[in-house]
Amino acid sequence: MMRFLKSLGLVLLASMVIVGCQSNNKNNAKNKGETKESNQANQEDETGFPNWGYDFQHTRHVPYKEITKANVKKMGIAWQQDILDWNKDVPNLQEDFPVIHDGVMYVTSAKNHVFAIDAASGKKLWVWTPPKDVLDHLNSLPWQSNVASRGVAVANGNVFVLMIDNRLAKLDAKNGKLLKMVNFWDHEPSIKLENRYYESSAPMYYDGNVYVGSSGGDNGTRGFVWAFKADTLEPLWKEPFWTVPERGTGWAKGKYTGGGSVWTPMSFDPDTDMMYFAVGNPAPDFYDADRKGKNPYTDSIVALDSKTGKFKWSSNQVDHDIWDYDAAATPMILNAKVGGKKQKVVVEGGKNGKWYAWDAKTGKTIYDGVPFVKIQHSDVPSDESKAVLQWPGTPGGESYAPETYDPETNYVLIPGINSPNLMVAAKDAEEIAKDNNTFPGTKILPLPKDVDVSGTITAIDMNTGKKVYQNKTDDPMYGGFTSTAAGLAFYGELGGNVNALDIKTGKVLWSMQSGGKQIKMAPSIYTVDGKEYVAVITGGTKVVVYGLGGKLKPGAINKNAKLQGEADVVIDPEKVYKRSCVSCHGDQLQGATAPNLQHIGKTMTKDEILNQILNGGDRMPAGLAKGAEAEALADWLSKKK
Predict the structure, then answer these.
(1) Is the pLDDT of residue 8 over 70?
(2) Residue 437 domain boundaries
(3) Does residue 553 sit within a domain?
(4) Is residue 566 part of a domain?
(5) What is the CATH number of the domain that holds 295?
(6) Could you say which residues form the signal peptide (predicted)?
(7) What digits encode the pLDDT tens for the residues 37-58?
(8) Is 347 part of a structural domain of the chain?
(9) pLDDT for residue 633
(10) Which residues contact 253 (CB under 8 A, 6 or more apart)?
(11) pLDDT given for residue 572 in this prediction
């Protein structure tokens, strides 16, 4: 699970093959006689970024070579577009991973607005706004307010969107028209927003079917993955594959016991039709009296037959989790040199701060928990005075940020979050029942001021499982990597910089500001008419695209959101805070499901805070306060130093 509310790939072929594939056509098969081969990519012919992780195996390694180590310093901004210019009320796109196909970029915002953009110019092609009844449903319950939407799936002329309130929508890729929408609760009555379920992942299209996972595990929901037929949106499997027992059975005791959400995309092996996915933590988070013993399949990687949903194997990273140590990041499937021989493996780094590799067919462990951040944890006390720093904290380790694999060096790059938490467990079941909202019974205290919070970039040699190098970054690595055939890895930072790393040496060769902050997604890299582009989302709503020879300067923070009149009465900002902010940021600004604000004035100006309140960003919805109330709140918060 992800502390701030947790919130489709193609096969690599020919001489550049990273993973075993058998295809020769592009992702969007145009004919009705659809086959597996017709939906895989010939890597030599691909020009876009057609899935969440580029290929079905989610290696995030593209074949493009125009941008090289020699010329990367000539990169600049080719185009930039703030989505607020098109719709001032749209929520943020903070954790969206753009998909690019046939020269069109598709991005999605929180509350599932979808934008189709000309990938070469930034020109708006179409916008899809969810129907009013769907938006009304999203706004009806509190636990959806900060939920991200991490992308779409595009295939066969359709765009598939996983809606926050547990629906799957299919749009026409040409014009954004809604073709069909299915409600999960029509097939499984328990899966609904009112039961604390929500969806934050990008759906995955694979071989004629669309695969979805669940979010809301921290709320005590029962995690699952499910498959739907892409043409009819009818279930492919009779029922979901459930990751935890039904409440009251097995190890799942207690009113809020559950978890095991699957809130990041699944990976697929076209050679075997096996699918692999990461499973989140058990719930309640720090309180374990009602879930003693091992809690399978939580904090695990699970492999299924994608056609039938039949279980193949699983491997857990934490037997009994009381620290919120999901297996969160999407697994990668690699044909890599291991111990001197080629082997098909599955790799993934956990929020527990350890990285693993398994044999893809059998699940046999190859590399068992290589540490990549500081690890120092103990039992979580229920007495606040006895709370100690737990490393890693609830964000990880490695959260949802994706790794990448470079076949030339045989290196995997891991994005790390080197940050602790002061965790406090509930005293008993009665205390848990008092918080009938999100994260029942879970509390996190403010960090001491002298704690060094940072990030890491770790290169692992697949042949040995050992670290080749590790770079420290000023900010935690929330975004992740995308690599190219020219030996570069691109990534963004919370401070707003976009960087190009020499994969072999670990040296940063190029860095440029994006005109925004809080880059919390991995770049999408694509070509149009032979020109290579690198796209990021920054500042919550800005799409910024770099290319060789780009001349634009980073754009300013969007000012389109205007104050809506001035109030004639004196405004108490603390009352505004308690009405609009306390449920996520805590009664003492200490942070809960959203960040600590006790010292926000040290890092953000009044104008920056006001922009965040008005426009949203970092998974915060826009408009929780408006007009003079928003200004008073921003002024009050800016003095918290």
Answers:
(1) no
(2) 61-548
(3) no
(4) no
(5) 2.140.10.10
(6) 1-23
(7) 333 344 446 899 999 999 999 9
(8) yes
(9) 86
(10) 247, 290, 291
(11) 75
* Residues 6 or more apart in contact with residue 318 via CB below 8 angstroms: 298, 299, 325, 350, 352
Query: What's the pLDDT at 628?
Result: 63
**How far apart, in whole angstroms, are the C-alpha atoms of residue 448 and residue 469?**
30
Beta pairing class for 167-172 and 482-484 = unpaired
Q: What is the pLDDT of residues 71-106, one digit of tens each?
A: 999 999 999 999 999 988 788 898 999 999 999 999
**Rounded CA separation 43/15 (Å):** 9
Q: Which of 548, 565, 583 is the last residue of a domain?
A: 548
User: Looking at the 3D structure of the chain, how many domains does it have?
Assistant: 2
Instruction: Let me know whether 274 and 422 are in one domain.
Output: yes
- Shared domain check, 596 and 477: no
Instruction: Indicate if the pLDDT at residue 161 is higher than 90.
Output: yes
d(CA 568, CA 198): 40
| Strand duo 443-445 + 454-461: pairing | unpaired
Q: Last residue of a domain, which of 483, 513, 548?
A: 548
How far from 33 is each of 29, 39, 207, 496, CA to CA, in Å?
9, 11, 12, 45
Q: In this structure, are 248 and 130 located in the same domain?
A: yes
| Nearest residue to 52 (alpha-carbon basis) of 170, 204, 279, 271 | 204
Residue partners of 412: CB distance under 8 A and separation at least 6: 332, 334, 347, 355, 403, 404, 405, 459, 460, 462
Answer whether 128's CB lies under 8 Å from 171's CB. Answer: yes
Burial tier of 383 (Cβ tally within 10 Å: 0-12, 13-18, 19+): exposed
Rounded-to-integer distance, Cα 49 and Cα 65, Å = 14
User: Distance (Å, rounded) from C-alpha 351 to C-alpha 373?
Assistant: 10
The answer to whether residues 490 and 69 touch, using CB atoms and an 8 Å cutoff, is no
pLDDT value for 384: 92
Count of other CB atoms within 10 angstroms of residue 461: 16
Q: Which of 169, 140, 139, 158 is nearest to 208 (CA)?
A: 158
One domain, residues 77 and 113: yes
Q: Is the peptide bond before 297 cis (omega within 30 degrees of 0)?
A: yes
Other Cβ atoms within 10 Å of 215 Cβ, number: 30
Q: How far apart are CA 371 and CA 334, in angstroms?
A: 20
Provide the whole-model pTM: 0.84
Q: Is 612 helix (H, G, I), strand (E, B) or coil?
A: helix
Q: What's the half-sphere exposure (Cβ side, CA atoms, 13 Å) at 446?
A: 14
CA 164 to chain centre: 14
Please return the burial class of 250, using the count of CB atoms within 10 Å of its CB with bins 0-12, 13-18 and 19+: middle
Asked, for residue 554, whether it belongs to a domain, the answer is: no
| CB neighbour list of residue 488: distance below 8 Å, 6 or more residues apart | 67, 68, 69, 72, 500, 501, 502, 503, 509
Query: For residue 122, what are its two tokens?
Result: 């930034």
Q: Do both 474 and 599 map to the same domain?
A: no
